[in-house]
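Our working data are protein records whose layout never changes between entries. Getting from the letters to the C-alpha cells is the skill we practise here. To make this concrete, we reproduce a full record directly below:
***
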Amino acid sequence: MKLRFAAKSISRRWFVNTIGVVLLLLTVSITALSFTLKNSTYSGIEQTITGRMDELLNWITADGRPQNASEFSAIARDYIESFPDKDSMEIMALNRSGAIFVTSTGFEPDQSQEMPDYEEALRTASNTGQWVGRLNTGEKVMAVTRVVRSGNGSITGSVRYLVSMERADAQTHRAILILVAAGVFIMLLITFSGIYFIRSILVPVQQVSDSAKKIAQGDFAVRIAKARDDELGQLCDSINDMAGELAASELLKNDFISSVSHELRTPLTAIQGWAETLQEDPDPATSQKGMAIIIREAGRLSGLVEELLDFSRLQSGRMRLLVSRVDVMTELDAAVFLFTDRAHSEGKDLVYEETATLPPVYGDVNRLRQVFVNILDNALKYTGPGGSITVSARESAGRVTATIRDTGCGIPAEHLPFVKKKFYKANQLVRGSGIGLAVADEIVTMHGGELTVESQEGVGTAVRITLPTCRLARLQPERTAPEIQKYIQERGD
C-alpha cells in the first residue's frame, strides 16, 4: 500500500507536522553548530596567535620598559630570524611608519598588501587589531597586529602574525559536512521509520474502511486479518465480531420474514378457501363449520399482527404502560382458562396450581396478560400430545414469581442463551414468528421484573416471570419502569 498525501490525509498531516518540524529543528541545530564550530576554530587560532605575540613582546620589553625604535628593530629581527614555527604561521615586524622590514618567510614582503588589522591596532586603546580576509594571492588568512609604544606613547614599531585559514576552513567544512550527513541520516531514519509506522496504522485502517464499506453494502462474510494484538488488532476483532453479529442478525431477519410470511399465508389461505366454499355451498352445517374456522384463523391473524405491532412499538420506544394494581393470580387464572380447551383438544394436560393469596403488583394488566398468554402459547406449541404444562405462582422477598413449566422437547444448550433475542427460533419446525418471547421479556423488564428460561433438551422448559410487589416497588422504585415509578409517586400508597 502506498502512502497517500492528499490534502486531508493522515500521511500528509504526519509528513507536515513531524518531518517538517524535525527538518526545521535539524536545520537550525546544524546551522548553529556550524557557526559555533567555525567561531570556536577561529577563536582558538586567534588565542594561539595572541599567546605567541605576548611571547615576542616579552623579548622586546625584557626589562619591563618599552624600547626605542632601533632596539625594537634589532630585537624583533633577532626573534623573527630564529622563529621556530615558521611552517605554521608567518611573523613580520613593521617600522614606525607601518612598512614591513622583516618577515619569517625570508622573502621580500608585498608592501602593496592592505593591512586592516594594522589600521585597527592604531585606532584602538589595546593597540591590537585582527582581520580575516584574503591576500592579493587569494589565500585566506587571519592577521593579528600589535603596536608597540614607548613610554611617552610614541610608536616604536609593530608586530604582525599571519596564519593561513585554508586548512582550518577545510577542517571546519569537513566537520560541517559530517553534521549535515548526520542530519540527513537522522532525517532518513525518521522518515523511513515513520513511513513504516504510518503504514502499520494506515494499512489496517484502510482494511477496516474497505471492510466497513463492504459490510454497509451487505457483505457480512468479510473479515479483516489481524496482524498484531494492539489497539488496531482489537479494532479488527471488533469489526469482525460486528460483521459476524450482523450476519447472524441478517440470517435471523430472513428467517423471521420467511416465518412471518408463512404464518400470515396459512390463516389467509384458510380464510380465502372457506369463504369461497361458503359462497358456493350454502349448506347450514358447512356454513357453521366454515365460519368457525374463518373466525379462528382471523383471530390468529389478528394476534400475529398485534404481536408485530407490539414489537415495533418496543423497538421504537413507543410502548406505554397503563399502570394499576394487578392481581397476578387473576391474570394467570384467565390465561389458563383461555388455553384449557386447546390443551384438551391437543391431548395435553394443563394444570394450574393455585396459591391461597399473593400480594398485588404495579403494572399494565393487559401487557402482563399478554406475557402469560405468549408463554403458555409457546409451552403448548413445544409440548407434544400426552405432555403437561404446569402453572404456579409464589411470593418471596417482596417479589411474585409465576412459573410456567412444560414437559416438551426442551431447548438445546447451545440455543438457550439466545432464545430471548428478537427473531431467534431454536426450533424451525414449530410455527411462530420468533419475537413472542423477546416481546414478553421486554414487557417484563419494563415492569422492573425479570424473565428467565431454564431448559433441558428432551426433558422440558421452565419460564419464570418475576415481578416486584407493590411494597417492594415503593421501596425500590429505581428498579421499575418510569411509568410505574410515576404511578407510585402519584398514588403515594
Remarks:
- The longest strand covers residues 140-149.
- The first helix runs from residue 10 to 60.
- The radius of gyration is 52 Å.
